[in-house]
Design goal:
single chain; about 375 residues; alpha+beta; eleven-stranded antiparallel beta sheet; 15 helices; about 35% helix; about 20% strand; elongated; F-box domain-containing protein
Length: about 375
């Protein structure tokens, strides 16, 4: 069986040498050298030191000479730009390089932490929107023609280095429902997706230690995002540029920012617990999530050996980023019958999330302001 495998590979090799490949295809020799040196199967076939006379043969091989399993392994190691380049070899290579299973890994690696269920729903709506009506696929109702695909693949690597106009044209030419199309739509900023932004509006003092919903578009030149915040009452849509990756997260709760979150762990709250609570200025505004800590009741001296605050129906929430005496410093809630509470002057407090994830808590700690707020 092994002898048959070797004969088949050699036959394919000599046949392929008669084919004319583009000059850049020889760049795959580096990948071949890596594969043959690292693959344990090939080490088994060649347990002794290889003959120096055979090295020119290896140097002349191309990626098309590899068995399918080896080729799949190499494609799995390529970055997005490498997949785009490899897709230019031939039609069969193109089908491999644009397959969803390869691009899903890249999508999750770069974008997974900020793409939640709402973003995936928005992507489906985006595919059916008029934004894609200029695509040949959408106009004809038939799959994209081979000539269009080949033209796309020949230029797709420039998606990562050319100007905005070219990148948008190439992204719109991809099969719309592919993972590769989603990845490139995110990379080019064509697709605005929902997520949440910490300390919105460049860390405006009025939003310190909060997290608000926004629509985001990526700018590959600066590796930052543009954020559009929903209108607050009569206030127009607020736009913020230069939002960095470390200020973003996927919404922890898949719900509209106007919906009151139903808290399910209030009876477990005790002093020292970290929480996020919904707050909005008035009932026309969407909720934002604000960071706080469960404090002690006024009747408690804070001594943990004698503390019974966790047994009380009431809980104190402290926002220690504000100075002592500030109206924003403390509030109280009823753990057994908690609803939206507040007024037009102090705002309205909504649902509560108890934070148990160390990464979430560390994120809020990292954003702590350098000075106490009034």
């Amino acid at each position: 069986m092994l002898l048959y495998f070797l004969i088949s590979c050699l036959s394919f090799f000599f046949l392929s040498k008669s084919l004319s490949l583009p000059p850049w295809a020889s760049e795959s020799r580096t990948l071949l050298s890596f594969y043959f040196s690292k693959n344990p199967f090939m080490t088994t076939l060649h347990p002794t030191t290889p003959d120096p006379a055979a090295s020119p043969l290896l140097d002349q091989m191309s990626v098309l000479d590899l068995p399918e399993l080896a080729l799949d392994h190499i494609l799995d190691l390529l970055p997005p730009s490498g997949l785009c380049s490899m897709a230019r070899v031939c039609s069969s290579m193109r089908e491999r390089c644009v397959s969803d299973h390869l691009w899903e890994k890249h999508l999750m690696t770069k974008w997974g932490k900020i793409l939640g269920p709402a973003a995936r729903r928005e992507w489906k709506c985006y595919l059916s929107s008029s934004y894609h009506l200029d695509s040949p696929h959408r106009q004809t109702g038939h799959p994209l023609g081979f000539d269009k695909i080949i033209s796309l693949i020949r230029s797709i690597s420039s998606v990562f280095r050319d100007g905005d106009k070219q990148r948008k044209r190439y992204a719109s030419s991809l099969p719309l429902d592919s993972t590769m199309s989603c990845y490139l739509s995110l990379e080019t900023g064509r697709f605005w997706f929902p997520a949440q932004v910490y300390n919105r509006e460049n860390g405006h003092v009025g939003f310190m230690l909060s997290c608000y919903d926004a629509e985001l578009s990526y700018d590959t030149h600066t590796d930052t995002f543009q954020a559009r915040y929903p209108p607050h009452g009569r206030r127009a849509v607020a736009i913020e540029k230069g939002v960095t990756w470390d200020r973003l997260r996927a919404a922890p709760i898949d719900a509209s920012p106007h919906h009151l979150h139903v808290s399910d762990s209030l009876n477990e709250l005790k002093p020292g617990d970290h929480i996020e609570i919904q707050w909005r200025r008035n009932k026309e505004f969407p909720y934002g999530w604000w960071y706080g800590i469960v404090g002690h009741l006024e009747s408690c001296d804070g001594n943990l050996n004698h503390c019974h605050c966790h047994l009380s129906e009431m809980a104190v929430l402290e926002f220690n980023q504000y100075t002592v005496g500030s109206r924003w410093r403390r509030t109280m809630i009823n753990k057994r019958d908690h609803r939206e509470e507040g007024n037009e002057e102090d705002g309205f407090y909504g649902g509560i999330r108890k934070l148990t994830c160390k990464q979430e808590i560390a994120m809020w700690t990292r954003l702590w302001p350098s000075s106490i707020l009034e």
